[in-house]
Design brief:
Arc Repressor Mutant, subunit A; homodimer; 3-stranded antiparallel β-sheet; DNA-binding; alpha+beta; globular
Chain lengths: 102, 102
DNA sequence: CAAACACTTCGATACTTGTCACATCGTAGC
DNA sequence: GCTACGATGTGACAAGTATCGAAGTGTTTG
């Protein structure tokens, strides 16, 4: 069992829950917009909450999982938490699925 | 919460456990070889077991999860179970990560 | 300073899951 | 038919997890 497999499994685990995945996809969409504008993006936790019907503690927990898995970076700005997708992981995932699938 | 998000989460959940991910990656590698040879590939469950240190019932369970998530197709051939990666899902995943990541 | 705000930590609970040992089923070959 | 073999079903158990309410931390603003 490769160590890389374990790390990858951790990444997928972070995306394996509907609410957490939605959180991440929201962030990913924001990032796309930003890339189009040519700058990196920041997004606050409260904003990510959006239509998800879960409390703040749960969101905090999910964000931590995403960060631990290396999918996002977080940074404090005063009261608020800034989240941004890590491009390296996206690239890695794309390459993983690039070779197959005809 | 989108229905598609739930389905995607299910896909990621299927890949979220090291042993199950390894199983899938083995299959994916075999598929790559096969695509290079220009034919579809079959792989038996016993073969997938390989170096993984888990019992047959557990592998059976994992294969079922992968199939339920739509990641692989299974088919019986006499005593043996034939597994093959579903190209559509690979394509879907690739496209999901295609737009971002610079 | 006090109040409001954004987020985190804690403890608890209900639920899910990976794994095994054991038993079973279905097919193939003698 | 009997045996061997690959795979699946069952029941159980330990470990993990998503969620919440309540309390806590640090920051901004009045």
């Amino acid at each position: 069992m490769d160590r890389d497999t374990k790390r990858l499994a951790r990444v997928f685990k972070a995306l394996s829950h509907p609410n957490r995945l939605q959180l991440f996809l929201n962030l990913l969409d924001e990032s796309k917009l930003d890339l189009a504008r040519g700058r990196t993006h920041d997004c606050f936790l409260v904003k990510l909450l959006g239509d998800l019907d879960i409390g703040a503690p749960t969101v905090s927990h999910h964000v931590k999982e995403l960060a631990d898995a290396g999918l996002i970076d977080t940074e404090r700005d005063g009261k608020q938490l800034i989240c941004s997708v890590r491009p390296e992981v996206i690239r890695e995932l794309r390459e993983l699925f690039a070779a197959a699938g005809k």
